[in-house]
Amino acid sequence: MGLSMKRREWLGLALATAVVPAAAARAQARSLVVFAAASLKNALDEIASGWARDTGKPMPRISYAASSALAKQMEQGAPADLFISADLDWMDYVARKDLIKADTRVNLLGNKIVLIAPRDSKATVEVKQGFDLAKVLAGGKLAMANVDAVPAGKYGKAALEKLGAWDGVKSNVAQAENVRAALVLVARGEAALGIVYATDTAAEPNVKIVGSFPEDSHPPIIYPAAVTREAKSADARPFLDYLKTIQARPAFEKQGFTVLVKSITSA
Question: What residue ranges define each of the domains in the chain, with the CATH number in brackets?
């Protein structure tokens, strides 16, 4: 009898230890997964915390990277419930691949690009047609996100080309995998100047803005968002709606984003 009791107790313990990891795995599987442009990190981290607090739901799992990298990962089958791109091109790309739910797509935010330098730099630049950026660099490096794929890099290159400054500096460009990596190069003094979003400067005290690019020097900077075609989390649409609320707006505006949607009172 004693042996039988011990066996039952052992089986009960084994069952309990098997159930707990399984439940944890199911909970994790239900967690909202967001793929977001690297420049959104500070604002979106704050908003995600607010979402969890206001709704009592688990914190979203947010993967930050260049929009190009995230779009390619989605194309290769990486699981994501919501995608927020830093430009229209990469959202159009995933739309053509039928990777998003078209009826959920919204132009969420606007931004600006600026020229930055290390905090102790003496550089000042009037960014205008024909300005001599090469002279200001004086042989130093210009940090930019990848100019062929990453939105911030593409915007920066387009602006420099339109203003007639690209040819003079293209051999001095230090390309980074995303805009936050370019920001770090300047913050560490490894690049004399950099081109990043205005919002990025709010996240890094070791840089300063030394010039702003005219809005007509590059395509409009728009951040679209959409629920993915293969979204598994029931929270994908509610979280996207939460990004449009008056609760989320201050976090975006504090970082310098322009909110392009009309704010709603609750999600």
Answer: 31-110+223-259 (3.40.190.10), 113-217 (3.40.190.10)
